[in-house]
Known about the structure:
By secondary structure, the chain is of the alpha/beta class.
Amino acid sequence: MPITDLLRKNAELYGNDTALVEVNPEITEVRRITWKDYELIEPNPLCCYRREISWKVFDEKSNRFANMLIERGVKKGDKVGILLMNCLEWLPIYFGILKTGALAVPLNFRYASGEIQYCLDLAEVDVLIFGPEFIGRVEEIADEISRNRLLFYVGEGCPSFAEHYDSLVANCKSEDPMISLSDDDDAAIYFSSGTTGFPKAILHDHRSLVHSAAVEQNHHGQTRDDVFLCIPPLYHTGAKMHWFGSLLSGSKAVLLKGVKPKSILETVSNEGCTIVWLLVPWAQDILDAVDRGEINPSDYQLSQWRLMHIGAQPVPPSLISRWKKVFPEHLYDTNYGLSESIGPGCVHLGVKNINKVGAIGKAGFGWEVKIADENGNTVERGEVGELYVNGPGVMKCYYHDEKATAETLKDGWLLTGDMAKEDEDGFIYLVDRKKDVIISGGENLYPVQIEDFLRAHPAVKDVAVIGMPDKRLGEIAAAIISIKENCTCTEAEINDFCQKLPRYKRPHKVIFADVPRNPTGKIEKPKLREMYCGESLVAAQIKN
């Protein structure tokens, strides 16, 4: 069945129950919104901005948007891009797109204007809907991208080059357009990147999305009584696919804007959250704030919080040991996945296996895994090979990229690009990355992009960027820079030059040294990691 059927079911069975809550602790001013689909709830004792919608209103809002798109000529197979920060509109818009038979195309909110245009072109997007945070970036490319696309805007202060979402959908029918869909119909395009950092468009069908919901509920046992706290961005498969467990169970979810430890604990307490998905830095920040005495868990209502799980990056075992000392009643889990496998869960540790922290786990619900050599043959237990996964959540293809698809999909198996090994109990450990992607605070950094930028500095002869272990972020980007003869350069000068990069892409560490290359001219990054890291982050975790 298509994923849209789950929303219809919830609207029918649990129509008046809360589906989504948006909480923004940074906003204390209360506005009354009179549009009929919205109800602005009065502030809680925190005086923070809070909105909520029921399953019935969620469904009706998706229907209104679907009908508006259909009136504007959007049809089955078209693509609609979403460039929004997390908000109450995000998921109804996503499902409205799917109800037309079109494909939802979420965009990374960190993209610069050129990256936005590149991805719109790559996925052949017909409509872009964006929010106030992106006015400047979209305006830079508006003349180019509006020639053959509709531009819709969500929020106050609609720019002249776009049409206002609220005005357009206000008078649209709330009845479901009931476009015929099947499991095999295309549903969404997500973006990922390989070692070069250039995004690939990943095509998934409805079967993939529904399977991800089943995987999440099987792993974490969501019921109608659970409340899921979602902090990561919804454009990411991880956040959305974890929320799909709430969709399948018809339970409440809370979208929290902000990652301050106090805000997280206050929201868990005020909203009765039972499941919280954190990234390593956020969990680290909570523990550090407790250690400093800035927050006291006993000041909050946390007894209902049953599960904390982490994904998107390697998890230091020492972090979980600390967490269990502060929150001894919490179950813990970690999930491994990639956008090509519709996000988290193709490999899964399991709440009963905390003694195996450091491993990513075993095959997830409905998934198969193997560790294979370069010919695709399964290696002996304990030997290192590439991790392969297979299941209903594997992507259909890289959109319009037959070569990359053929390199990644072989005989039904998805080649993850991650090197791994299996212990005597069948638990899988990541050993190294076949790709050079650095995962810092849950965000992917692509060394080639940073290297290309730094090479533009007049004093830089050569540069290599590697990931170095970091207690809080998991990894940080370190730039090893070789300076031209007769030139001088300081770390401060490099840091000043990097101000032109987005903050999350700036190197955290600068090392002036020779950059080793092999006879074919390729940078010897394993040698650099050995020189400056001692051993890879993941390998270090396995030994702990």
